[in-house]
Amino acid sequence: MQALNLTADEFIALAKRRLRPEPPSFGDVISRPRGDHEMQPQPIAPPDEKAAVPAAVLIPIVPRPDGPTVLLTQRAAALRSHSAQVAFPGGRVDAVDGSPVVTALRETEEEIGLPRERVRTLGFLDAYLTGTGYRIVPVVALVEPPFSLVLNAHEVDDAFEAPLSFLLDPANHRREGREWQGMYRTYYAMPFGDRYIWGATAGMIRNLYERLAG
């Protein structure tokens, strides 16, 4: 599998061709939900899609002079679930949101203070089902510099950018595993310096790579 080393313009053009133009709907027979269930050494049934908690995340692509980057967060260490993990900004869908885009933009603004007027949606990945019971819609978007961030200390400890070229290189996509709830579970991991990108976040990055690579 070939690494994708794209300029910002190349990424935008490819995203418009390869990403879903509309959010994935429930029970989509054309493209089934992706998720943790796909990567296990022993086949397991996917979670019930309609029973999962609806959520959305923003996959923010930032055009930089040295190449596009992906904006990620380090969740607050004091959180009860997924504490200190690397994540995309996002969260649960509120009934008043109306669309995954609204959810992703609202949650991103709440978590890191990224102004929504700096964000332009490019498309969507397939829904991602997690073993913890969430159905996540990834919203891929371009974030136009300059912008400043204001971190919500209750939700995130840090925000950082990783080169898109690093994340879209399958040589950096490790398959690792651990014991969880009495079963050995495998997942993608993409260590980046002292950051450990893994789990659903790494899984969605892998899905982005597969979608773009065709």
* Radius of gyration, CA atoms, in whole angstroms: 16 Å
Termini separation: 11 Å
The percentage helix is 10-25%
Which class do the helix and strand fractions yield? alpha+beta
Number of helices: 4
Please trace the helix and strand order, writing H or E for each element.
HEEEEEHEEEEHEEEH
Looking at the overall shape, the CATH architecture is Alpha-Beta Complex
Query: What percentage of the residues does DSSP assign to strands (E)?
Result: 25-35%
CATH homologous superfamily?
Nucleoside Triphosphate Pyrophosphohydrolase
Q: Overall mean pLDDT score?
A: 92
Query: How many separate domains make up the residues?
Result: 1
Low-confidence stretches: none
The tally of strands reads 12
Profile the largest sheet.
9 strands, mixed
CATH domain class name: Alpha Beta
Shape summary? globular
CATH topology: Nucleoside Triphosphate Pyrophosphohydrolase
Write structural notes for this entry.
It is a single chain. This protein has 214 residues and is an alpha+beta fold. The chain is built from four helices and twelve strands. The strands form two sheets. Strands 1, 2, 3, 4, 5, 6, 7, 8 and 9 form a nine-stranded mixed sheet that branches. A hairpin with a 6-residue loop joins strand 2 and strand 3 (69-75). It is globular. The model has no long low-confidence stretch (mean pLDDT 92).
Can you give keywords for this protein?
alpha+beta; Nucleoside Triphosphate Pyrophosphohydrolase; nine-stranded mixed β-sheet; about 20% helix
